[in-house]
Write a structure and sequence with these properties.
Belongs to the cytochrome P450 family. With 360 residues, the protein is an alpha+beta fold. Helix content is 49%, strand content 10%. The chain contains 14 helices and eight strands. The model has no long low-confidence stretch (mean pLDDT 92). It binds protoporphyrin IX containing FE. The site of protoporphyrin IX containing FE has 23 residues, from helix 5, helix 8, helix 9 and helix 13.
Length: 360
Protein backbone atom coordinates (compact mmCIF):
# COMPACT_ATOMS: atom_id res chain seq x y z
CA UNK A 1 0.00 0.00 0.00
CA UNK A 2 1.46 3.33 -1.02
CA UNK A 3 0.97 6.75 0.52
CA UNK A 4 -1.00 9.18 -1.61
CA UNK A 5 -2.58 6.42 -3.66
CA UNK A 6 -6.03 7.59 -4.82
CA UNK A 7 -7.28 3.98 -4.89
CA UNK A 8 -6.34 3.51 -1.24
CA UNK A 9 -8.08 6.77 -0.32
CA UNK A 10 -11.26 5.49 -1.98
CA UNK A 11 -10.93 2.10 -0.25
CA UNK A 12 -10.50 3.84 3.12
CA UNK A 13 -13.61 5.96 2.46
CA UNK A 14 -15.56 2.80 1.59
CA UNK A 15 -14.48 1.13 4.85
CA UNK A 16 -15.71 4.18 6.76
CA UNK A 17 -19.08 3.78 4.98
CA UNK A 18 -18.77 7.05 3.06
CA UNK A 19 -21.09 7.12 0.08
CA UNK A 20 -20.81 10.75 -1.05
CA UNK A 21 -17.20 10.92 -2.29
CA UNK A 22 -17.48 14.13 -4.30
CA UNK A 23 -20.11 16.72 -5.12
CA UNK A 24 -23.04 14.61 -6.38
CA UNK A 25 -20.82 11.53 -6.72
CA UNK A 26 -22.03 8.39 -4.91
CA UNK A 27 -19.69 5.49 -4.30
CA UNK A 28 -21.25 2.01 -4.59
CA UNK A 29 -19.24 -0.90 -3.17
CA UNK A 30 -21.77 -3.53 -2.13
CA UNK A 31 -21.27 -6.35 -4.69
CA UNK A 32 -24.98 -6.94 -5.27
CA UNK A 33 -25.78 -3.26 -5.66
CA UNK A 34 -22.73 -2.91 -7.94
CA UNK A 35 -23.90 -5.71 -10.22
CA UNK A 36 -27.46 -4.43 -10.34
CA UNK A 37 -26.69 -0.75 -10.89
CA UNK A 38 -23.76 -1.13 -13.30
CA UNK A 39 -25.73 -3.49 -15.52
CA UNK A 40 -29.08 -1.65 -15.48
CA UNK A 41 -30.22 0.04 -18.68
CA UNK A 42 -30.60 3.44 -16.95
CA UNK A 43 -26.85 3.59 -16.16
CA UNK A 44 -25.26 5.68 -18.92
CA UNK A 45 -21.57 5.92 -19.63
CA UNK A 46 -20.35 9.49 -19.33
CA UNK A 47 -18.60 10.40 -22.53
CA UNK A 48 -17.19 13.81 -23.17
CA UNK A 49 -17.08 14.29 -26.94
CA UNK A 50 -13.72 15.96 -27.43
CA UNK A 51 -13.35 14.76 -30.96
CA UNK A 52 -13.14 16.60 -34.26
CA UNK A 53 -16.20 16.34 -36.52
CA UNK A 54 -14.73 13.42 -38.51
CA UNK A 55 -14.37 11.23 -35.45
CA UNK A 56 -17.75 12.03 -33.87
CA UNK A 57 -20.34 9.25 -33.75
CA UNK A 58 -23.08 11.85 -34.35
CA UNK A 59 -26.56 12.21 -32.82
CA UNK A 60 -27.50 8.51 -33.21
CA UNK A 61 -24.04 7.50 -32.11
CA UNK A 62 -25.06 5.35 -29.16
CA UNK A 63 -27.52 3.25 -31.19
CA UNK A 64 -24.94 2.81 -33.96
CA UNK A 65 -22.21 1.83 -31.51
CA UNK A 66 -24.49 -0.72 -29.82
CA UNK A 67 -25.24 -2.25 -33.24
CA UNK A 68 -21.50 -2.38 -33.97
CA UNK A 69 -20.87 -4.04 -30.59
CA UNK A 70 -23.48 -6.72 -31.39
CA UNK A 71 -21.87 -7.37 -34.80
CA UNK A 72 -18.40 -7.61 -33.25
CA UNK A 73 -19.38 -10.02 -30.47
CA UNK A 74 -18.96 -13.41 -32.25
CA UNK A 75 -15.67 -12.31 -33.82
CA UNK A 76 -14.18 -10.95 -30.59
CA UNK A 77 -15.49 -13.96 -28.67
CA UNK A 78 -13.91 -16.45 -31.09
CA UNK A 79 -10.42 -15.06 -30.69
CA UNK A 80 -9.16 -18.16 -28.84
CA UNK A 81 -8.58 -19.87 -32.20
CA UNK A 82 -5.84 -17.34 -32.94
CA UNK A 83 -3.61 -18.28 -29.97
CA UNK A 84 -0.94 -19.81 -32.26
CA UNK A 85 -0.74 -16.70 -34.41
CA UNK A 86 -0.61 -14.51 -31.30
CA UNK A 87 2.27 -16.57 -29.87
CA UNK A 88 4.26 -16.05 -33.08
CA UNK A 89 3.80 -12.29 -32.87
CA UNK A 90 4.73 -12.16 -29.18
CA UNK A 91 7.85 -14.22 -29.94
CA UNK A 92 8.95 -11.56 -32.45
CA UNK A 93 8.77 -8.86 -29.77
CA UNK A 94 10.44 -10.98 -27.07
CA UNK A 95 13.22 -11.92 -29.50
CA UNK A 96 14.37 -8.30 -29.19
CA UNK A 97 14.83 -8.58 -25.42
CA UNK A 98 18.29 -9.26 -23.98
CA UNK A 99 18.75 -12.67 -22.32
CA UNK A 100 20.03 -10.82 -19.27
CA UNK A 101 19.10 -7.21 -18.55
CA UNK A 102 16.37 -4.87 -17.38
CA UNK A 103 13.10 -3.91 -19.10
CA UNK A 104 10.35 -1.38 -18.53
CA UNK A 105 7.29 -3.67 -18.35
CA UNK A 106 4.85 -0.98 -19.51
CA UNK A 107 6.91 -0.05 -22.53
CA UNK A 108 7.37 -3.67 -23.60
CA UNK A 109 3.70 -4.43 -22.98
CA UNK A 110 2.68 -1.54 -25.22
CA UNK A 111 4.83 -3.11 -27.94
CA UNK A 112 3.29 -6.56 -27.47
CA UNK A 113 -0.26 -5.17 -27.50
CA UNK A 114 0.50 -3.06 -30.59
CA UNK A 115 1.76 -6.13 -32.41
CA UNK A 116 -0.85 -8.63 -31.25
CA UNK A 117 -4.03 -6.70 -30.31
CA UNK A 118 -3.91 -4.13 -33.10
CA UNK A 119 -2.62 -6.88 -35.41
CA UNK A 120 -5.78 -8.87 -34.70
CA UNK A 121 -8.11 -5.90 -35.35
CA UNK A 122 -6.29 -4.87 -38.54
CA UNK A 123 -5.54 -8.37 -39.83
CA UNK A 124 -1.80 -7.66 -39.73
CA UNK A 125 0.51 -5.61 -37.51
CA UNK A 126 0.82 -1.97 -38.58
CA UNK A 127 3.52 -0.15 -36.60
CA UNK A 128 2.80 3.17 -38.33
CA UNK A 129 -0.90 3.11 -37.43
CA UNK A 130 -0.14 1.96 -33.87
CA UNK A 131 2.31 4.88 -33.65
CA UNK A 132 -0.52 7.29 -34.49
CA UNK A 133 -2.77 5.69 -31.85
CA UNK A 134 0.02 6.01 -29.31
CA UNK A 135 0.54 9.64 -30.23
CA UNK A 136 -3.16 10.45 -29.98
CA UNK A 137 -3.44 8.85 -26.52
CA UNK A 138 -0.34 10.71 -25.34
CA UNK A 139 -1.63 14.07 -26.56
CA UNK A 140 -5.12 13.40 -25.13
CA UNK A 141 -3.62 12.83 -21.67
CA UNK A 142 -2.10 16.33 -21.73
CA UNK A 143 -3.82 19.50 -20.50
CA UNK A 144 -6.43 21.42 -22.45
CA UNK A 145 -3.85 23.86 -23.79
CA UNK A 146 -2.94 21.37 -26.47
CA UNK A 147 -6.42 21.08 -28.00
CA UNK A 148 -5.08 21.90 -31.47
CA UNK A 149 -2.55 19.12 -31.19
CA UNK A 150 -5.26 16.70 -30.16
CA UNK A 151 -7.43 17.58 -33.14
CA UNK A 152 -4.50 17.07 -35.51
CA UNK A 153 -3.69 13.73 -33.87
CA UNK A 154 -7.32 12.60 -34.11
CA UNK A 155 -7.52 13.54 -37.78
CA UNK A 156 -4.30 11.69 -38.51
CA UNK A 157 -5.47 8.47 -36.82
CA UNK A 158 -8.86 8.60 -38.49
CA UNK A 159 -7.40 9.19 -41.96
CA UNK A 160 -4.89 6.37 -41.55
CA UNK A 161 -7.61 3.96 -40.40
CA UNK A 162 -9.88 4.84 -43.33
CA UNK A 163 -7.10 4.06 -45.72
CA UNK A 164 -6.23 0.78 -44.01
CA UNK A 165 -7.77 -2.67 -44.31
CA UNK A 166 -9.09 -4.33 -41.17
CA UNK A 167 -10.26 -7.75 -40.05
CA UNK A 168 -13.56 -6.77 -38.42
CA UNK A 169 -16.84 -8.37 -39.62
CA UNK A 170 -18.43 -4.95 -40.21
CA UNK A 171 -19.04 -5.06 -43.95
CA UNK A 172 -22.75 -4.24 -43.42
CA UNK A 173 -21.83 -0.82 -42.03
CA UNK A 174 -20.79 2.22 -44.05
CA UNK A 175 -17.11 3.09 -44.37
CA UNK A 176 -17.25 5.95 -41.87
CA UNK A 177 -18.90 3.84 -39.14
CA UNK A 178 -16.43 1.07 -39.78
CA UNK A 179 -13.49 3.44 -39.40
CA UNK A 180 -14.95 4.83 -36.17
CA UNK A 181 -15.40 1.31 -34.81
CA UNK A 182 -11.84 0.28 -35.65
CA UNK A 183 -10.61 3.51 -34.11
CA UNK A 184 -12.56 2.86 -30.91
CA UNK A 185 -11.12 -0.66 -30.67
CA UNK A 186 -7.57 0.51 -31.30
CA UNK A 187 -7.72 3.35 -28.77
CA UNK A 188 -9.53 1.41 -26.02
CA UNK A 189 -7.41 -1.67 -26.69
CA UNK A 190 -3.98 -0.03 -26.39
CA UNK A 191 -2.82 1.34 -23.01
CA UNK A 192 -5.42 -0.51 -20.92
CA UNK A 193 -4.43 -4.07 -21.90
CA UNK A 194 -0.78 -2.98 -21.90
CA UNK A 195 -1.15 -1.86 -18.27
CA UNK A 196 -2.77 -5.21 -17.41
CA UNK A 197 0.11 -7.09 -19.03
CA UNK A 198 2.70 -4.87 -17.34
CA UNK A 199 1.17 -5.50 -13.89
CA UNK A 200 1.06 -9.23 -14.58
CA UNK A 201 4.76 -9.30 -15.52
CA UNK A 202 5.53 -7.21 -12.43
CA UNK A 203 3.73 -9.68 -10.13
CA UNK A 204 5.35 -12.67 -11.85
CA UNK A 205 8.80 -11.16 -11.26
CA UNK A 206 8.00 -11.08 -7.53
CA UNK A 207 6.63 -14.63 -7.56
CA UNK A 208 9.07 -17.17 -9.04
CA UNK A 209 6.80 -20.02 -7.90
CA UNK A 210 4.05 -18.73 -10.21
CA UNK A 211 6.58 -18.66 -13.09
CA UNK A 212 7.46 -22.29 -12.40
CA UNK A 213 3.79 -23.27 -12.32
CA UNK A 214 3.12 -21.69 -15.72
CA UNK A 215 6.11 -23.52 -17.22
CA UNK A 216 4.78 -26.78 -15.81
CA UNK A 217 1.20 -26.10 -16.94
CA UNK A 218 0.55 -23.20 -19.33
CA UNK A 219 -3.14 -23.25 -18.35
CA UNK A 220 -2.06 -21.72 -15.02
CA UNK A 221 -1.32 -18.49 -16.92
CA UNK A 222 -5.07 -17.74 -16.95
CA UNK A 223 -5.18 -17.89 -13.13
CA UNK A 224 -2.16 -15.57 -12.90
CA UNK A 225 -3.82 -13.07 -15.25
CA UNK A 226 -7.11 -13.13 -13.31
CA UNK A 227 -5.26 -12.53 -10.05
CA UNK A 228 -3.20 -9.66 -11.49
CA UNK A 229 -6.42 -8.08 -12.79
CA UNK A 230 -7.95 -8.50 -9.33
CA UNK A 231 -5.13 -6.65 -7.56
CA UNK A 232 -4.41 -4.13 -10.30
CA UNK A 233 -7.43 -3.34 -12.48
CA UNK A 234 -6.08 -0.78 -14.99
CA UNK A 235 -9.52 0.87 -15.18
CA UNK A 236 -9.87 1.32 -11.44
CA UNK A 237 -12.87 3.67 -11.44
CA UNK A 238 -16.07 3.68 -13.48
CA UNK A 239 -18.71 6.36 -13.54
CA UNK A 240 -22.32 6.07 -14.69
CA UNK A 241 -25.14 8.64 -14.75
CA UNK A 242 -28.65 7.35 -14.07
CA UNK A 243 -31.13 8.57 -16.68
CA UNK A 244 -34.05 7.21 -14.62
CA UNK A 245 -34.58 6.65 -10.87
CA UNK A 246 -33.15 3.30 -9.71
CA UNK A 247 -33.06 1.73 -6.22
CA UNK A 248 -33.92 4.99 -4.50
CA UNK A 249 -31.32 7.02 -6.43
CA UNK A 250 -32.94 9.91 -8.31
CA UNK A 251 -32.49 10.46 -12.04
CA UNK A 252 -29.25 12.30 -12.79
CA UNK A 253 -27.29 10.69 -9.92
CA UNK A 254 -23.70 9.98 -10.86
CA UNK A 255 -22.50 6.67 -9.42
CA UNK A 256 -18.88 5.69 -8.88
CA UNK A 257 -17.81 2.04 -8.95
CA UNK A 258 -14.31 0.76 -8.31
CA UNK A 259 -13.08 -2.69 -9.27
CA UNK A 260 -9.97 -1.89 -7.19
CA UNK A 261 -12.00 -1.39 -4.01
CA UNK A 262 -14.45 -4.29 -4.50
CA UNK A 263 -11.76 -6.73 -5.60
CA UNK A 264 -9.84 -6.25 -2.34
CA UNK A 265 -12.81 -7.04 -0.11
CA UNK A 266 -11.57 -9.53 2.49
CA UNK A 267 -15.06 -11.01 2.87
CA UNK A 268 -14.89 -12.30 -0.71
CA UNK A 269 -11.12 -12.71 -1.18
CA UNK A 270 -9.17 -14.01 1.83
CA UNK A 271 -5.72 -12.33 2.09
CA UNK A 272 -7.09 -9.61 -0.21
CA UNK A 273 -3.78 -7.78 -0.79
CA UNK A 274 -1.77 -10.94 -1.41
CA UNK A 275 -0.96 -12.22 -4.92
CA UNK A 276 -2.43 -15.72 -4.78
CA UNK A 277 -3.26 -17.01 -8.28
CA UNK A 278 -4.01 -20.43 -6.77
CA UNK A 279 -7.35 -19.02 -5.62
CA UNK A 280 -8.50 -19.20 -9.27
CA UNK A 281 -7.28 -22.75 -9.87
CA UNK A 282 -10.64 -24.42 -9.65
CA UNK A 283 -12.22 -21.63 -11.70
CA UNK A 284 -14.31 -20.20 -8.85
CA UNK A 285 -16.78 -17.57 -9.95
CA UNK A 286 -17.01 -14.76 -7.39
CA UNK A 287 -20.28 -12.83 -7.23
CA UNK A 288 -20.39 -10.55 -10.32
CA UNK A 289 -20.18 -7.27 -8.42
CA UNK A 290 -17.16 -8.54 -6.45
CA UNK A 291 -14.87 -9.02 -9.47
CA UNK A 292 -15.30 -6.87 -12.58
CA UNK A 293 -12.00 -5.70 -14.14
CA UNK A 294 -13.83 -5.48 -17.49
CA UNK A 295 -16.86 -3.67 -15.99
CA UNK A 296 -20.31 -5.24 -16.34
CA UNK A 297 -23.48 -4.79 -18.30
CA UNK A 298 -24.25 -3.38 -21.73
CA UNK A 299 -21.15 -1.14 -21.75
CA UNK A 300 -18.77 -3.71 -20.32
CA UNK A 301 -15.53 -4.34 -22.20
CA UNK A 302 -16.11 -6.04 -25.58
CA UNK A 303 -12.40 -6.92 -25.79
CA UNK A 304 -12.22 -9.07 -22.64
CA UNK A 305 -11.74 -12.41 -24.42
CA UNK A 306 -9.12 -10.91 -26.74
CA UNK A 307 -7.29 -9.41 -23.77
CA UNK A 308 -7.33 -12.61 -21.71
CA UNK A 309 -6.03 -14.66 -24.64
CA UNK A 310 -3.33 -12.11 -25.44
CA UNK A 311 -2.15 -11.94 -21.83
CA UNK A 312 -2.08 -15.71 -21.21
CA UNK A 313 -0.25 -16.40 -24.48
CA UNK A 314 2.29 -13.67 -23.74
CA UNK A 315 3.15 -15.10 -20.31
CA UNK A 316 3.80 -18.56 -21.72
CA UNK A 317 5.98 -17.19 -24.53
CA UNK A 318 8.00 -14.91 -22.23
CA UNK A 319 8.59 -17.67 -19.68
CA UNK A 320 9.80 -20.07 -22.39
CA UNK A 321 13.02 -18.10 -22.65
CA UNK A 322 13.23 -15.81 -19.61
CA UNK A 323 13.12 -15.77 -15.83
CA UNK A 324 11.73 -12.54 -14.41
CA UNK A 325 13.19 -11.01 -11.27
CA UNK A 326 12.23 -7.85 -9.34
CA UNK A 327 14.30 -4.77 -10.15
CA UNK A 328 12.41 -1.56 -9.31
CA UNK A 329 9.00 -1.07 -7.68
CA UNK A 330 6.36 1.13 -9.40
CA UNK A 331 5.40 4.61 -8.29
CA UNK A 332 1.83 5.71 -7.57
CA UNK A 333 -0.32 6.81 -10.51
CA UNK A 334 -2.90 9.56 -10.04
CA UNK A 335 -4.68 9.40 -13.39
CA UNK A 336 -7.49 7.28 -14.79
CA UNK A 337 -5.12 4.56 -15.99
CA UNK A 338 -3.61 2.44 -13.23
CA UNK A 339 -0.28 1.16 -14.54
CA UNK A 340 3.09 0.24 -12.97
CA UNK A 341 4.65 3.65 -13.55
CA UNK A 342 8.43 3.63 -13.42
CA UNK A 343 8.67 -0.10 -12.61
CA UNK A 344 11.54 -2.19 -13.96
CA UNK A 345 11.91 -5.97 -14.24
CA UNK A 346 15.14 -7.95 -14.43
CA UNK A 347 15.59 -10.64 -17.10
CA UNK A 348 17.64 -13.84 -16.82
CA UNK A 349 17.96 -16.75 -19.23
CA UNK A 350 15.52 -19.52 -18.31
CA UNK A 351 17.00 -22.02 -15.84
CA UNK A 352 19.48 -19.43 -14.58
CA UNK A 353 17.96 -19.06 -11.12
CA UNK A 354 17.73 -22.82 -10.57
CA UNK A 355 21.36 -23.22 -11.67
CA UNK A 356 22.36 -20.41 -9.34
CA UNK A 357 20.65 -22.19 -6.43
CA UNK A 358 22.19 -25.62 -7.14
CA UNK A 359 25.70 -24.23 -7.35
CA UNK A 360 25.11 -22.36 -4.10
C1 LIG B 1 -7.01 -6.49 -19.70
C2 LIG B 1 -7.38 -5.69 -20.65
C3 LIG B 1 -8.61 -4.82 -20.61
C4 LIG B 1 -9.29 -4.32 -19.53
C5 LIG B 1 -8.97 -4.50 -18.05
C6 LIG B 1 -10.41 -3.56 -20.04
C7 LIG B 1 -11.34 -2.92 -19.25
C8 LIG B 1 -12.40 -2.18 -19.75
C9 LIG B 1 -13.38 -1.51 -18.92
C10 LIG B 1 -13.41 -1.51 -17.40
C11 LIG B 1 -14.25 -0.89 -19.76
C12 LIG B 1 -15.45 -0.03 -19.35
C13 LIG B 1 -14.98 1.41 -19.22
C14 LIG B 1 -16.09 2.37 -18.86
O1 LIG B 1 -17.25 2.10 -19.11
O2 LIG B 1 -15.78 3.44 -18.35
C15 LIG B 1 -13.82 -1.15 -21.11
C16 LIG B 1 -14.43 -0.66 -22.24
C17 LIG B 1 -14.01 -0.92 -23.52
N1 LIG B 1 -12.98 -1.75 -23.90
FE1 LIG B 1 -11.74 -2.75 -22.68
N2 LIG B 1 -10.36 -3.59 -21.42
C18 LIG B 1 -9.30 -4.35 -21.81
C19 LIG B 1 -8.92 -4.66 -23.09
C20 LIG B 1 -9.58 -4.25 -24.22
C21 LIG B 1 -9.19 -4.60 -25.58
C22 LIG B 1 -8.03 -5.52 -25.97
C23 LIG B 1 -10.07 -3.96 -26.42
C24 LIG B 1 -10.18 -3.92 -27.92
C25 LIG B 1 -9.81 -4.75 -28.75
C26 LIG B 1 -11.00 -3.22 -25.59
C27 LIG B 1 -12.03 -2.44 -26.06
C28 LIG B 1 -12.91 -1.74 -25.28
C29 LIG B 1 -13.96 -0.87 -25.81
C30 LIG B 1 -14.21 -0.58 -27.29
C31 LIG B 1 -14.64 -0.35 -24.70
C32 LIG B 1 -15.81 0.63 -24.72
C33 LIG B 1 -17.11 -0.14 -24.60
C34 LIG B 1 -18.33 0.76 -24.59
O3 LIG B 1 -18.22 1.88 -24.09
O4 LIG B 1 -19.39 0.32 -25.06
N3 LIG B 1 -10.66 -3.42 -24.27
N4 LIG B 1 -12.68 -1.95 -21.08
Amino acid sequence: MLAGDPRERLAAAAVRGVVEVGPGLRLVTDPRATARLLACSAARTLRVERGVAETSWGPDGLATWMAVRAALRPWLGGVGGQAGEFAERVRRVVAGWPARGVIDPMRESVRVVGEVGAGFVLGEPSPSLVGLVERELTVAARPRLLRGGLRAAQRATYAAIRGHRDATPLSDFDEHTRALAVRTLLLAGHHVPAAALAWTLHELARHPEAQREIRADPRFAAAVVREALRLHPPVWRLERRLDAPVDGFPEGTVLLFSPYVNQRDHRVFPDPHGFRPGRWRRDPRPPPGAYFPFALGPRGCPGARLALTLLSVTLSVVLDTHELVPHREPRVTQGVLHHPRGARIGLRPVGDLARGRSTG
